[in-house]
Queue: 2 jobs
Job 1
Amino acid sequence: MVGNLLLRGFIVGIVAGLLAFAWARFFAEPAVGQAISFESAQDEAKEAAAKAAGKEPEPEAPEIFSRAVQSGVGLLTGLVVIGAGIGCLFAIMFAFAGGRLGDLGPGPSSAVLAFLAFMTVYVIPALKYPANPPSVGQPDTIKYRTGLYFLMMAISIASTIGAWLLRRRLMPKFGSWNGSLMAFGAYLIVIAFFFIVLPGINEVPAAFPAVTLYNFRLASLSIQIILWGSVGVMFGYAGAAALANKDRS
Amino acid sequence: MDEGTHKSVATTTAMDVPLQIAIPVSKILPWAIFGTLLVTLAFYFVGAEQGATSIISGMGVHEWVHDARHLLGFPCH
């Protein structure tokens, strides 16, 4: 039963990854391209300055894959793998949520679940540590930045689960709406606390074009909307079909 | 009196029982652990391998998933 749901989540996730790839090809890649042009221009300027000063220019890192490969099959691999992963995680959440979140029916409850997961796993961590295009970020702080990003994601996931459990405890005493508001208020306080306490990361080069940065972050957001949105909608049907099959057998 | 008590019990039960029957946690848990493990591995390779930490030497994995890593919001380099 749960295995069947997981398999359906896997397939739905692959489809979501393909949709995200089709979208990213023409909406996201221009911003990545512009960021890489900026990077190349910076590198060339540095090289020219080094030559003018009579120094040996730093050797360039060898190119392993061409840009065409990176923005084609490379991007496809990454998005499909993440899509399949999101689909599997979603199936597990759906299995837990079924019959425990009230009676919305499989379609709407799948959509609500996808929205909550999208906010928790992507939006909240990205508000604190937004997605950065190539050439933004210093290579020597990569460990620090990755650590903080995953820490923020873990805090976000724990806060959402905590708020959910708190809501369940408060609802019998204060009613469903008041209990929900109180739990959400507590959630906001916890998230605001960590937004303030955790260190900020500001490594955008001063000359980096603001429009490119905006377009890149918008593209990143839109890809995540497609991934979670299509998983949420498609799994409403796939999950309901799995549950119906179980009833018949 | 008896009838009244009986009625109230029936009402609470009707409110508590959801339409869709919940799958027992004990049945979900093994799949949840198995799934989460695989997904963590997949996320790690797309999101962090040959960036913050490295299991496989070189930059092949990093460069292959480069664009996806940036666009999905993971710190890349």
Job 2
Amino acid sequence: MTLMSYRQALHDTLRSEMLRDENVFLIGEEIGVFEGSYKITAGLLEEFGEKRVRDTPIAEEGFTGAAIGAAMLGLRPVVEIMTINFSLLAIDQIVNHAAKIYGMFGGQAKVPMVIRTPGGGGQQLGATHSQNIELYYAFVPGLKVVAPSTPADAKALLIAAIRDDDPVIFLENLALYNTKGEVPNHDTPGVIGQAAVTREGHHLTLIGYSRMAHVAKKIADQLADHEGLDIEVIDLRSLRPLDRETIVESVKKTHAAVILEDDWLTYGIGAEVAASISDGAFDYLDAPVRRVAMAEVPMPYSKSLESAALPSENDVIQAIYQTLDAIGHRRIKTGPHD
Amino acid sequence: MTDRKRTPRKPPARTPRAKTAPVQVEPDAQGLLDFYREMLFIRRFEERAARGYTQALIGGYCHLNLGEEATVVGLMSALQPTDYLFTNYREHGYAIARGIDPRRIMAELYGRVDGVSKGWGGSMHMFDTAHRMLGGYGIVGGQIPLATGAALAIDYRSGEEVVMCTMGDGTTNIGAFHESLNIASLWRLPIVYVIINNRLGMGTSVEKSSAEPELYKRGAAYQIESARVDGLDPVAVALAGKHAVEVARGGRPYLLEVVCERLRGHSVVDPAKYRSADEVASLKEHDPVHTLAARLIAQGITDEESLLTLDHEVLANVEEISTFAEASAFPDEQTLFDYNYASEVPNDSRRLPGQPLFVTTLTSGADQ
């Protein structure tokens, strides 16, 4: 194991997969000479050359579609879309083509490609640059969507995504790039389509993905230390397929769930998770399923408004308390968050 | 890719080959007759498809190549079997001319298991790996970035193949067209973009939709060599197509505009009321199948009686094709989830409408 940042784990994995398989190449805006907007691809142009680290014009539809076409002929492109907001410019190619080609032609052509793209608000980037629209892709059969929250999962799932024969949307998060964790030294691929129980507990199930899985774990640890609460945490890791089994098995044990998401509440990822709980654990629930999501506004620029719109740790803690209160739990002691 | 001097983009292998390519000559009598046979076959096949639609054997949208036959056979004659074709939703004729078994094309129209896309694609989504026809695409312009990427993959592997990407005139106004031409020129990709200009979108004319109605000129914005050719003359199309393919094989994209006609409506259900009587009369006069027949007779290559015999053969053949397609089975409902993913994945949702996410323990007790 090596302690490294989420950014470093992504960088090292891209490099090792490029060394392993010459069909793997990188394509996107400013990934070569500029080394990537978030420096994930730093040094790779120098090491691998322009053929395998391909700077593109600002043409998301064009270069994403070109990557799909190259994948149809057996290459394994890893596309970087600078932020998930810009993927909207490529959505026809992603939804109408990458997701459709395998099924629409009766299984004759595979599309082995990865689209890496970060989401995330909280950087005062305003309405068009702070969205979390992974739902748009998680909605679509034919795509796989993963959203790792730790450096170790970032490595394992990126390996899995690159070696997978289907188009995989690989969701990163601006706020996670500098977070650190232990990363295995071996190159074992992770499993797309499986959630992880990152903390076992029996009072309540706290569910998140990407940045919010990180927040969930942190809050659960904090409440265990300070309040003696024993909260189970699930990191969804994969949004399509969604591992409903792990969610439902946990809720059958804890009888309550709070879902955290950085996207908008109505129709969000949490709504699907809540529906899964309703279908699979209805008789086990002792309280309504709660969701903590972003306020439903175009993200404002000003810090005061942006902070109000984003789910805070306190918002999460209050939702946990209210859920526990609803099922009659008494808090072990009064915490600092009342 | 701003600094070309630092990293040469072209593998040396392709360039000399293109330079030594033989000069193309006009087809001889047999070549003309072959063109005619193929054009007539496409004509009769498409007419049968139109009838199949009215018989409710074909559903969805159905766009025919009627009037485009000379363009189809001319363009396809320019490609090697190892070259790739990406096209749009008006592609039955292209699939035929590419050499795909026409029974499988009709079976696809009828939505049967023997269809080229096993009944998953339909009229707009013909695909056949063996004949390197990589789709039939229903979204206007969707095929252009894909085709460009296929050319990128050829270039990446220093391959000798070329990609041809056809599209309609209306497609030249979509962003993907411009993004792709720019990329292909910057990266010197081996691709021929072909605009099939039948002068109408659905009912909107080129003049009403394109500020530069001479569409081949759009290549200039991307330093792409381009030309316009008469799409009613299969020989002219073939020669222009061969030149375009040679340029592409040499490592430069090419833009070819082929001006042709659409004999009927946009799709089989469109009565084309927006066309005047004069226009319709003119279409008949310039019908490429009739024009070539007259040319063959005038040049003494064949006579009317032989052409009539040929027509009877083709009609009988097309009827057999329809019979085959109709006899082919519909895909089994059990195969509905067979093509969800190429790589298996846990927790893939395979539920029919109305099925619960979780079956209660009283019945079978499992999620899947």
